Amino acid sequence: MVTTDDPELYRLGNLIRSHGDDGRYHHVMLGLNYRLTDIMAAIGLNQLAELNDYLSKRKRVAEQLRKGLKRLDSVKPQEITDGAEPSYSYFSVKLDPEALRCSRDEFVRALQAENIECGVHYPIPLTEQPILKQLLHPNTCPHSEELARTILSLPMHPYLTADEINLVVEAVEKVATHYSR
Hints:
By secondary structure, the protein is mainly alpha-helical. The chain folds into two domains: 1-35, no CATH class; 51-179, Aspartate Aminotransferase, domain 1 (Alpha-Beta Complex), CATH 3.90.1150.10. It has helices at 7-17, 38-48, 51-69, 104-113, 130-136, 142-150, 162-179; strands at residues 21-23, 26-27, 75-77, 91-95, 151-154.
């Protein structure tokens, strides 16, 4: 814990503790993740005992989502390379902008209208983060820049039921069909 009566030190402390982030996914300086609380630590320790069960359930959910979405050419689940053991903290899909008449954000809004909560994580590639542009002057990264525009994450947690997974798949199919070229 840090205390201060200096507004500038307070501002800098908040930036440092949260990845240098002065707004969601907008990094203006180098920072760290110092946001863990005692309660979070206690819960985390308790959840470690359940880790293998959580991972197994998430894998089951991911397999069902992957199976349900395989019919769609315009929505591709994240690729898993051989030998990888994903935790599926997210289940991300990539939209094919050539096959759809909408942006990723329009697709997300349509899914939300179908009562499917989804997320857009990392909408700004690292090469576009202010602090990295300032310090490193990075080259463009076309693949990560494209992913930042075209990926979204579908609901993912270890307690999704088969019926809930089917609702997600049906909604994705409905939205993809509606926006299909």
